[in-house]
Amino acid sequence: MSDIGNRLVLLGTKGGPAIRPGGPMPTASLLEMGGRRVVVDCGLGVAKGLVEAGVSLRELDLIVITHLHSDHLLDLGPLLHTAWTTGLDRPVTVWGVPGTQDYWDGFLASMRFDIDLRIADEGRVDLRELVRIEEYGEGPVTIDRLNAATLRVPHPPVHDCFAWRFEADGRSVTFSADTAYHPPLAEFAKGSDVLVHEAMLAQGIDRLVEKTGGGEKLRAHLYASHTEAADVGRIAAAAGVGRLVLNHLVPADDPGIGEADWLKAVRETWDGPLTVGRDGLEIGL
Q1: Which domains, ranges and CATH numbers included, belong to the chain?
Q2: Does the predicted TM-score (pTM) go above 0.90?
């Protein structure tokens, strides 16, 4: 594997699966620390985002899926298959919530013709033998060279949704996953160098619902399942993190909302280092 630094790259920063012209892509992140390379969530476009971040897909290492919403899972299969056609010939471990194995089995079944053909015609190793799915729950996670742990967070109606904390070489990074305001997350993230937390701005929700459809059911879901920006600041302040990074922005592609709006909302409750996420943003650790 090529040299791995210590960095966080936001590959996709949009909350929700829809994409629009000139807008950001759904959620995916790259974390490099402790000599390991971790892809956190696989929203649409993750493979392109990794390549643009300078990662050789044939050197995929670890993948984490925080929950089974499509904007976090949709491109898991395409990422692994594309890496395989790029030359991946080493094992990859996917840490996924219950149901991830079913997704992977279904993807393999849908691509059986192509996989079998490329093995016979191009001499490739069998993709089905390279990928190991490890389904996890709440608690410590054993990963070589990384200390990792998960915390179940509220994202109704999804039951299995987990925040992740990674530690190595005196550094720590916490990802909130998708979550409603959840004060216990502050204790889980306590002292993290970086907290990557989803964020929602109420002022854009009516326009988002009108644009997307779904009416009152979608509006109710958004308010029940996500964290408003000021509450994100409260979590960061209670956790005493080194830097707060806003990710999975809802809405992320509203022309009436800019970076200044996010900053204003979070600054009501958080006065520490603050970054509003955008696709391709790299943060050194």
Answers
A1: 7-277 (3.60.15.10)
A2: yes
